[in-house]
Specification:
The complex is a heterodimer. The mean pLDDT of chain A is 97. Among the domains of chain A are: 55 residues, Uridine Diphospho-n-acetylenolpyruvylglucosamine Reductase, domain 2, CATH 3.30.43.10; 94 residues, CO dehydrogenase flavoprotein, C-terminal domain (Enolase-like, domain 1). By secondary structure, chain A is of the alpha+beta class. Chain A has a 5-stranded antiparallel beta sheet with strand order 4-5-10-6-7. A 4-stranded antiparallel beta sheet of chain A has the order 11-12-13-14, sandwiched between helices. A 3-stranded parallel beta sheet of chain A has the order 1-3-2, covered by helices on one side. In chain A, strand 2, helix 2 and strand 3 form a beta-alpha-beta unit. Chain A is 33% helix and 25% strand. Chain B folds into 3 domains: 197 residues, Aldehyde oxidase/xanthine dehydrogenase, a/b hammerhead (Aldehyde Oxidoreductase, domain 3, Alpha-Beta Complex), CATH 3.90.1170.50; 326 residues, 2-Layer Sandwich (Aldehyde Oxidoreductase, domain 4), CATH 3.30.365.10; 146 residues, Aldehyde oxidase/xanthine dehydrogenase, molybdopterin binding domain (Aldehyde Oxidoreductase, domain 4, 2-Layer Sandwich), CATH 3.30.365. Helix content of chain B is 29%, strand content 22%. Chain B is built from 19 helices and 28 strands. In chain B, the strands form 7 sheets. In chain B, strands 3-5-1-12-9-10-11 form a 7-stranded mixed beta sheet, sandwiched between helices. Chain B has a 5-stranded mixed beta sheet with strand order 7-15-14-13-8, sandwiched between helices. Chain B has a 4-stranded mixed beta sheet with strand order 18-26-27-28, sandwiched between helices. Classes of the chains: A alpha+beta, B alpha+beta. Chains A and B meet through helix 11 of A and helix 4 and helix 19 of B.
């Protein structure tokens, strides 16, 4: 770790101001990616702004047909939350399979989506459910939030404050873990929503993406059989020592079918 | 019979401190004025060092010194050595390139040690290490053992084709003749995948030069501190042996990787004198991946000649072994004397021939890793045997039964040098078949098929040679040391016992097992025995722990030290009981006059020895006895493992349903510890078969250099094991009748798993059987079937 200045603001406004004052600062949420990165000297921020002291970033509440989850809410809280479990059980399930117990007790929603690791689970849920990302200055449709490998639509100095997830008719998340890291090698979030069927894939490509062919097929028959005849194009998918693009393409269908089978 | 003595599953004495975080590991040791080392490591697999500019680093805060291979050379230090001379077929000695403790003008693998920075704090050392500017001249790299011969890359000067040796064993003429007569030949090509040992505690060293005493102390993560002292003194030449103490305190796992003498520990010791401060280094996990000696990495072709009944007539093997960029301490003997000598397995194959080419590559050194050569031999033999069964349309149990060395053939001289003293293989097979419910397998397979799963079952009948080793035998084969062991039993006035052993425990539980042994032999309370190891200034000289040798060799030395205590005690008892020494019998801690009720407890005898007011004239006072023991032969644990698993054809995921291990370890001191050793070995063996793989890319970068990419087995990757240790056959040449159990699980399990995978998917794939590999194999089979 290199030396850095440390700040723990008490409000989003203070955090935004600190970011503006320290252009080379980084935000610390749950730290599940950031702290190991610092320890390995792979990042050298001038300052670290710890969001852990900001009450307004915490809490889960129902707003009409939406569940609004604060950016600093931990995965373990989402997994256990009664509101989430009753309105969007698939979201609680998804949070319950992120990392391990230690990660779930530290890692946060805002940290996960702002980092946009291609193998993270949350982007699948945000896009799969058609959620809206709320920041200190605006609202961003989930689709538009994730723009590329570790890239998001966040502007310089912009902070995610919450995500609003609409309650689906039915939804499920399933993933195939990388055997070494246990991150999602392929994760598929399927949802039947008021606006139609959504299928979001994480882990397989450089960034979360939707599968229009699957969505179309599932619109008429929301069941595993409906996608049996479809195949996923491997071009553009990730490839590494654990899985080729071709294998990932195959797994997307396998995993999507398993997610659909869960809904039954 | 002493409570908690031999045969009792006593809970381990050492575990309380280990599981409560009270262990004392090398990194826990803090010396006054301690400084910290950080190594500058090569980012290139193969490059010349054109220049090193250390001026910026030297000027940084807290820096005490920056040293390179130039200073090492200027100080006239020797290099690290490989202690086993293996000769090629033509009689020429193996070609060992220099292995300096800091690279000199050239680097040969990613992670090679180029320079060291010593600073007041670890952060300062790291900061300064980043400021050392090294100008490299990048050279082409040779990484793949199968291609290094013709790569045109010269890793060391004057070692053509990177060939370390071209060695052979067995009777080539007889083997070829048997092949000419064979009714059937089965052939396999195998890769034994490269592994990273991954002990929980990374390597660490704390070197301390004491100016006043002109003496050195090295605290280090070692499985064999006396061997470290010998190499660092006699070959690296940092300090004369009597001025060097090596202390290996609690060590968090070794699996072989901490046998070897490494550059970093030498550098810390050497630099300590340069900066006149204790110098500490602790590897981070990335350094461990890059610079710990790796294991396995063989490419082999094996053929079995059979008659029409599936009787083995001859075995012919060629192996190419990857040694990495330098020859590590014991590396040369692993793919030769610890590998090819085991190729008979449990079978009476009359003719065997094997030749082995060992090569340098631009990768981390490769040396012993749990099993060391024997897993490679077992994987090869047991894969081949299973393929033989398939080719001959025989049940895999039946083909083994037909070829087992029969019980009445022991001692059995194999065609590959070893003589097995004892063994009885069919009872292990029978027990394994029973515990695995082999008869019920077809029905379970049907049930799996009904769920859309593919079920397979696989066998492995392993043999290993443990208790390394009879010194004269290994000496004749090129070993540079003797592999005897030593022990001392020291009584105090109050009858408490210190056992000093030359072995080293780094997870094996010696503090428990050796105390049980002494409790049984001397009739003292188990709680009254303390076992001391790992400090060359305290313990008897010993050769350390590896090759499942601690009990079979070190334990036997301890028995002999106990025998000396008893012999001396009889003299004292005879005096006190006014009887003839010949009439004194020792049993359960009491010296008695035979046929009478007159006796003295061992506590009374010890007290008399230490307070010799009434004592045999001329007899030395004190009760402290030392014994050295050189074994007559290796020991030969054996067993049969059966793995049953399910494959999900959609994803290629393999899930082990049941793993049955039946082992003949001879006599057992602590059954719980033995079972734990088997569990640990199985986890590592199954890890090799399904999960673990060290992968270098073509340029020599280790791309599996973290747990993000190197798949360590986790508890949920493994089934609940069915482990059974048979009474079996006791070792015939040590008084305990023990054989050793530390490596068996890792030796026997990979072929059982891979044979089961092959049985499930109908085709053979290489280790590790990752989901994608399994899926691809199934795709290929389906395509082939569709084409028919």
């Amino acid at each position: 770790m290199y030396a850095f200045g440390y700040h723990r603001p008490g409000s989003v406004a203070d955090a935004v101001k600190l970011l503006a004052d320290h252009p080379d600062a980084k935000l610390l949420a749950g730290g599940q990616t950031f702290i190991p990165t610092l320890k390995q000297r792979l990042a050298q921020p001038s300052d670290v702004i710890d969001l852990g002291g900001i009450a307004e970033l915490r809490g889960i509440r129902a707003e009409g047909d939406n569940v609004v989850i604060g950016a600093m809410v931990k995965h373990g809280e989402v997994m256990r939350d009664a509101t989430v479990k009753s309105m969007i059980p698939a979201l609680a399930d998804m949070a319950g399979v992120i990392g391990d117990t230690q990660v779930r007790n530290r890692g946060t929603l805002g940290g996960s989506i702002s980092n946009n690791d291609p193998a993270a689970d949350y982007p699948g849920a945000v896009v799969g459910l058609g959620a809206t990302v709320i920041t200190d200055r605006r609202q961003i449709a989930g689709e538009d939030f994730f723009t590329g490998l570790f890239e998001t639509a966040l502007e310089e100095g912009e902070i995610v404050t919450a995500v609003s997830f609409p309650k689906p008719v039915a939804a499920a998340y399933e993933k195939f873990r990388n055997p070494a890291s246990r991150y999602a090698m392929v994760g598929v979030f399927v949802a039947k929503t008021a606006g139609g069927v959504r299928v979001a894939v994480t882990g397989a490509g450089p960034c979360v993406f939707r599968l229009p062919e699957f969505e179309q097929a599932l619109s008429t028959n929301f069941a595993a059989d409906a996608i049996q005849h479809l195949n996923v194009d491997a071009s553009g998918l990730n490839a590494d020592i654990h899985a080729s693009a071709e294998y990932r393409a195959h797994l997307i269908k396998v995993v999507a079918k398993r997610a659909l089978a869960k809904i039954g | 019979m002493a409570t908690n003595g031999i045969g009792s599953s006593v809970k381990r004495k050492e575990d309380l401190r280990f599981i409560t975080g009270s262990g004392r590991y090398t990194d826990d040791i803090q010396l006054p004025h301690q400084a910290y080392a950080c190594f500058v490591r090569s980012p290139h697999a193969h490059a010349t060092i054109n220049s090193i500019d250390r001026s910026a680093a030297e000027a940084m805060p807290g820096v005490l010194g920056v040293f390179t291979g130039e200073e090492v050379a200027a100080d006239g230090l020797g290099g690290l050595i490989c202690g086993w001379m293996v000769k090629s077929k033509d009689g020429s000695p193996m070609k060992a390139g220099p292995h300096p403790i800091l690279a000199h003008r050239k680097v040969r693998y990613v992670g090679d040690h180029v320079a060291v920075v010593v600073a007041e704090t670890l952060q300062q050392a790291r900061d300064a290490a980043e400021a050392v500017e090294v100008e490299y001249g990048v050279l082409p790299a040779a990484v793949d053992v199968a291609k290094t011969h013709d790569s045109g890359v010269d890793i060391h000067d004057d070692i053509p084709n990177n060939l370390v040796y071209d060695w052979e064993i067995g009777d080539k003429v007889a083997t070829d003749a048997a092949f000419a007569q064979a009714k059937h030949v089965t052939r396999v090509e195998l890769i034994n995948n490269r592994l990273v040992p991954n002990a929980m505690e990374p390597r660490a060293a704390l070197g301390h030069y004491d100016t006043g005493m002109d003496a050195y102390t090295l605290y280090t993560t070692s499985q064999n501190p006396h061997v470290a002292r010998l190499v660092i003194s006699a070959f690296v030449g940092i300090a004369p042996e009597h001025k060097l103490t090596v202390i290996a305190p609690d060590v968090g796992g070794g699996f072989g990787s901490k046998i070897f003498i490494y550059a970093e520990e030498c550098v810390c010791l050497w630099a300590s004198k340069k900066v006149r401060r204790p110098v500490k280094w602790t590897a981070d996990r990335t350094e461990a991946f890059l610079s710990d000696a790796h294991g396995r990495d063989h490419v082999s072709v094996a053929e079995m000649a059979m008659d029409e009944n599936g009787q083995f007539l001859a075995l012919r093997v060629n192996t190419k072994a990857n040694m990495g960029a330098y020859l590590s301490t014991f590396s040369s003997c692993i793919p030769t004397y610890l590998y090819a000598t085991l190729l008979a397995g449990q079978y009476k194959t009359p003719a065997i021939y094997c030749d082995v080419q060992a090569y340098y590559t631009n990768t981390a050194p490769v040396d012993a890793y749990r099993g060391a050569g024997r897993p490679e031999a077992t994987y090869l033999v047991e894969t081949l045997v299973e393929e033989c069964a398939k080719d001959m349309k025989l049940d895999p149990a039946e083909i083994r039964r037909r070829n087992f060395i029969p019980k009445d053939a022991f001692p059995y001289q194999t065609p590959v040098a070893l003589q097995y003293d004892t063994g009885d293989y069919e009872p292990c097979l029978d027990k394994a078949l029973e515990l695995a419910d082999y008869a019920g397998f077809p029905e379970r397979r049907r049930q799996s098929e009904a769920k859309g799963k593919l079920r397979g079952i696989g066998f492995s009948a392993y043999i290993e040679a443990c208790g390394i080793a009879p010194s004269a035998v290994i000496g004749s084969l090129g070993a540079g040391v003797g592999l005897w062991e030593s022990a001392k039993v020291r009584f105090s006035h109050t009858g408490k016992v210190q056992v000093l052993t030359g072995t080293h425990s780094h997870g094996q539980g010696h503090e428990t097992t050796f105390a049980q042994l002494v409790a049984s032999k001397l009739g003292v309370a188990y709680e009254d025995v303390d076992v001391i190891h790992g400090d060359t200034s305290k313990t008897t000289v010993g050769m350390g722990t590896y090759g499942s040798r601690s009990l079979a060799v070190g334990g036997e030395a301890l028995v002999k030290a106990c025998d000396k205590v008893i012999a001396k005690g009889k003299k004292i008892a005879a005096h006190l009981l006014e009887a003839s020494e010949q009439d004194i019998v020792f049993q359960d801690g009491n010296f008695s006059v035979a046929g009478t009720d007159r006796s003295k407890s061992i506590g009374e005898i010890v007290f008399a020895a230490l307070v010799p007011h009434n004592y045999p004239p001329g007899l030395e006072p004190g009760m402290e006895e030392t014994a050295y023991y050189d074994p007559a032969n290796f020991t030969y644990p054996s067993g049969v493992y059966i793995c049953e698993l399910e494959v999900d054809p959609d994803s290629g995921v393999v899930e082990i349903q049941k793993f049955t291990a039946v082992d003949d370890f001879g006599n057992v001191i602590n059954p719980m510890i033995v079972e734990g050793q088997v569990h640990g070995g199985l986890a590592q063996g199954i890890g090799q078969a399904l999960l673990e793989n060290a992968v270098y890319d073509e340029s020599g970068q280790l791309i599996s250099a973290s747990y993000m990419d190197y798949t360590m087995p986790r508890a949920d990757d493994l089934p609940s094991f069915v482990v059974h240790t048979t009474a079996g056959t006791a070792c015939t040449h040590n008084s305990l009748g023990v054989k050793g159990c530390g490596e068996a699980g890792a030796i026997g399990s990979p072929p059982a798993v891979m044979n089961a995978v092959a049985d499930a998917i109908g085709t053979r794939i290489s280790m590790p059987a990752t989901p994608e590999k399994v899926w691809r194999a199934l795709q290929k089979t389906q395509l082939a079937q569709a084409a028919e």
